[in-house]
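User: Design a sequence. Structure:
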């Protein structure tokens, strides 16, 4: 297929995909997301393993009917919301401005 018969939008997308700006954006995204995901998965599996193999520890009462297991379970919800809030704030500062520039480059709109 010659250059003149190719879809110009596909060329634009490919140009952006191989650009250093896109590579940097993808690298920055992965440097945040992969470690955060790994951290959360470790935290989650520790909770599951403790619940399965450390019954004595997890059933220890903290106060009233509140047990260590209940606090860990609630901690899962809290950490999920915390990670989401951290990601949104981080993406607003570190990803969105550069992604917006790339979007304008693809759409041909003024920056």
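Assistant: Done.
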């Amino acid at each position: 297929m010659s250059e003149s018969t190719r879809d110009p939008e596909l060329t634009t997308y490919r140009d952006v995909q191989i650009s250093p700006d896109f590579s940097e954006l993808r690298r920055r995204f992965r440097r945040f997301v992969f470690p955060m995901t790994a951290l959360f998965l470790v935290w989650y599996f520790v909770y599951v393993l403790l619940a399965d193999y450390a019954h004595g520890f997890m059933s220890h009462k903290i106060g009233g009917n509140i047990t260590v297991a209940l606090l860990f379970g609630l901690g899962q919800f809290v950490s999920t919301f915390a990670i989401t809030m951290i990601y949104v704030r981080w993406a607003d500062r570190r990803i969105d401005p550069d992604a917006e520039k790339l979007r304008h480059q693809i759409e041909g709109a003024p920056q």
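The helical segments are 8-17, 20-53, 55-58, 68-94, 96-107. The beta strands are 61-63, 66-67.
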